Amino acid sequence: MRFVVFGFTVTASWCNGHATLWRALCRALSAMGHQVVFFERDAPSHAAHRDEPAPAGCDLHLYASWKDVLPAARRETARADAAIVTSYCPDAIAATDLVLAACLGTSVFYDLDTAVTLDGVEPRARAEYLPPSGLGAFDLVVSHTGGHALDALRERLGARRVAPLYACADPRVHKPAPLEARFASDLSYLGTYSADRRGAIDALFVEPARRRPRDRFVLGGAMYPEDFPRPTNLLLVPHVPPAEHPAFFSSAGLSLNVTRRAMARWGWCPPARLFEAAACGAPQVTDAWEGLEAFFEPGAEVLVAKSADDVLAALSRTRAEMQQLARRARERTLDEHTADARARTLVDLVTEE
After folding, report:
1. In contact, 247 and 220? CB cutoff 8 Å
2. Residue 180 has pLDDT above 80, yes or no
3. Which 3 state secondary structure label does DSSP give 244?
4. Nearest to 164 by CA among 84, 96, 110, 119
5. With contact defined as beta carbons under 8 Å apart, do 254 and 322 qualify?
6. Which pLDDT value is given to residue 126?
7. CA nearest to 84, candidates 20, 153, 22, 166
8. CA dihedral over 241, 245, 248, 251, signed as positive or negative
9. How confident is the model at residue 128 (pLDDT cuts 50, 70, 90)?
């Protein structure tokens, strides 16, 4: 099959989860014998942080303006078995018009930001990537979020056929790595700063650091403000590129996941980091959200924390308990939550009558 994608980015992973997901899907689809053509606008913010300028598994069209790329986009869309427009694509409206007019295969909207989409359905707050008429013209809408969000996409935005396509790990990239001293920690957290995660990070990461002064806490991520609390045993690593994620996760005694508030409110939206850390063999503790048990078994494959006390209890577990937790989560991830599994799901969805 030939997939044509009009997306946000596949070349720059800085402060977004789109790039790593698409890199994994492109590699998986290519390994299955499919072709992927990816159209990405050459935005200055991406150009400044482009960490994979030639992603494997896709034919990349990096363009300066929609007008310049339109002939190639029209040609590729007409040849596509599936043409996909994603959330936050800067030319989503124009790309949607093209896909609906020219694609003879399956037209798809892939919402990697469903919580943002659904929170902005009112005209004043409407996401710029949403067509004015909603999503009813697409043959298929796939969502990074499952559960109640799928009903909301139907009811609020007119989507006719909706299915989840969750985050994943790429075993080609995410696998156990040797411990690196600069990342070594009793508890680590990897994630770009977000104001709506601040309270949870303070409670589940900073407060345990204050209460365990002899332990080492490593925080990886960009855009943390100057006033972010930093106990002396908390190390901030301003940016951890994707190639170093395996070492970061593998060097942690315990890895923390904190879900953004909007995602947690809808539930059924597992962050990619949860699968990536599991694939790297890191034991994990996560905040609670609806649907978690569909991806990992709480207590057996992942620990759940609602307070600093819960995190401290997790840190007090034996090494053997942690190893068993990590082993089970890794096995579950490799069985169910890989890029290959998601790619097969996508192929099945676009070929389903």
Report:
1. no
2. yes
3. helix
4. 110
5. yes
6. 81
7. 22
8. negative
9. very high
